[in-house]
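User: Before I run my own analysis I want an independent prediction to cross-check against. Here's the chain; please return only the structure tokens and, at the end, one sentence I can use as a sanity check.
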Amino acid sequence: MKQLQRSLLGSAAAFAAIGAAHAADLPVKKAAPVEYVRVCSAYGAGFFYIPGTDTCLRVSGRARFEGGYITAYTRQAGTNSGDDSGYRGLLRFNLDARTQTAYGTLRAFVRLDAGSRAGASGVGRSGT
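Assistant: Structure tokens:
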């Protein structure tokens, strides 16, 4: 029984000593904050530097959604009776990368256009 008490008391003392040793550590000096995104003002608004390079990049785009509803009295009678509806969705995604070379500005531009339409043929149509 005395052996068990001694081992428990010794374990408690060891844990207390380890805890005190960790508490006595000096605080580590904090590293300077890393600047992940830097603004590139050479080519206008919206550009930023790609990390680790001198290339500026602008990511832009737009999304558009149109919906419509056509009532029965706007179409010819016959097999086209009943109301109809439809929608159209458009997406444009642009990547514009520019960097300075010995010969001037080198530019790479990529544009992705996508669209989807469902429903009535007249719904979602416009001049653009």
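Sanity check: The helical segments are 2-23.
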